[in-house]
Amino acid sequence: METVRQIIEMKGPFVFSIGPNESVFDALRLMAAKEIGAVLVMEIDCLVGIISERDYARKIILLGRTSRQTKVKEIMSCPVYTIHPDQTVEEAMVLMNTKQIRHLPVSEDGTHVLGVISSKDLLRSMVYYQREAIKTLEDCVNRQHTAIRELEETLGMRYEHRNRVERLAP
């Protein structure tokens, strides 16, 4: 099974972050510019939180607050769950499902972030590997069918040859 490290290597180690004292509006502007659904909250190169579109919807819009007047630290999600790059895609899916999160920072030590994976990244990975598994199985079945046809042809020839020899015998 694929590891989280392999996903980060494919998508690139891009990490977008914002400070905890920045406005939620600035975080939203960054998310829109980068076309991402969450931004890490970093303070002096240390991961302190994460803010997502979901945080904005639930903690700003629904509560009647304004994004320009609210600081990121007021609505960010923390503590932040992280995953080690050597863990599997399946382990990442279990963690995301259990904790009901869509974005997962990848870190070897819990603070230095190597990248971020999303539920969409995991889904793409699973679809890719399922397609590869199906292709491998189809190739195996096709090879088996070819071998069976060749065997049937060989056995059929032997059977026909034996029948001819028996008919010719006095």
Strand order of the largest sheet: 1-2-3
Principal-axis shape equals rod-shaped
- Describe the largest sheet: 3 strands, mixed
CATH class descriptor of one domain: Alpha Beta
- What percentage of the residues does DSSP assign to strands (E)? 15-25%
Q: Quick one: CATH superfamily of one domain?
A: CBS-domain
User: What structural class is derived from the secondary structure elements?
Assistant: alpha+beta
The total of helices stands at 6
Number of strands: 5
Helix content: 40-55%
CA(first)-CA(last) distance: 66 Å
pLDDT average, as an integer? 87
The residue ranges in which pLDDT falls below 50 over 5 or more consecutive positions are none
For this structure, the CATH topology of one domain is CBS-domain
Rg over CA atoms: 28 Å
Topology, please?
Layout: H1 4-11, E1 17-18, H2 24-34, E2 38-43, E3 46-52, H3 53-61, H4 72-75, H5 89-99, E4 103-107, E5 113-118, H6 119-168
Parallel strand pairs: 1-2
Antiparallel strand pairs: 2-3, 4-5
Helix pairs in contact: 5-6
